[in-house]
Amino acid sequence: MSNLVAPVPLVRLLDLSKSFGAQRALDQVNLDIYPGEGVAVLGASGAGKSTLVKILSGSLAPDTGEVWVAGQRQRFTSPLSARRVGIVAVHQCPDDAIAPGLSVAENLLLDELGQPDADFLLNRKSLLQRAEAIAAGLGLELPLQLPVERLGQADRQLLVLARAFALHPKLLILDEPTAALSAADAERLLGLIDSQRARGVAILCISQRLSDLQRVTNRAIVLQQGRLTGDLNTRHLPSAAYTLFGDTAEHPPITADKALPVPFLERFTRAGFIRNRAEGRAVQEQVLGSGVAPTEEVSPATSKPR
């Protein structure tokens, strides 16, 4: 007789719906996310990715449905209320989360400085020691005493990520974390994400770089017009999707009747990604040849992150 106990989800969404006027942004979405799991969110512009992230991070309230965290039903009223139960979001533009006029160390501890019992402002030595301990624990070398404005784009992104990790999140939401980074800087950031996931932090990631999704997630959900239409192992993305980032020899294709459409993405800068419409058409032809229906083509002039 087996004594195995089914794992309990860290986050559970039940029949989550949200409308803006006549537009249904989310339509009865059900989703479980487990500790240490990496979940990619795929979908075309307007599919509901941003709405899902905003509800999970406390920036938006659902019209109907329930959000459960660690077995407790939650009603988030702000991002702070979401952070209190371990859900932290890192958005695409790091400058939105940085306070100019403060040092790197002060920005790293910005959430702690906002607490009523914080004494860092009266004890700068204590502040610096705390910041050094956080940076060292994450293996980061940041110029903690410099004004934050002197940091480059990559170090700003790492700073914002380190600040999120300092909150000891249970679920970390990443919105295009490497979009503005070089390959080398992206590798630094992805390595940091890997280390946190190994410690049991769950990751929910939106990215146009499918190679990043392959790196930090094991599962992908697909949103279409607000509905969750697919939930699959990241390894089993349609074989044509792998042409976006290189060799597919280690990834067996799935059959057309089980395949899910993946948005065609353009305007990439890293080698191996679609860079123009001609390459996009070539990939579409490959998909059509494999019997997998492509999603609507997006013009480079009008494409958006979501």
TrEMBL record:
Residue ranges annotated for the ABC transporter domain, each copy included: 11-250
Alphabetical UniProt keywords: ATP-binding, Nucleotide-binding, Repeat, Transport
GO molecular function, one term: ATP hydrolysis activity
SMART domains for the chain: AAA
Alphabetized Gene3D superfamilies for the sequence: P-loop containing nucleotide triphosphate hydrolases
InterPro entries xref list: AAA+_ATPase, ABC_carbohydrate_import_ATPase, ABC_transporter-like_ATP-bd, P-loop_NTPase
Region spans: Disordered: 286-306
Name of this chain's protein: Ribose ABC transporter ATP-binding protein
Organism, as annotated: Pseudomonas aylmerensis
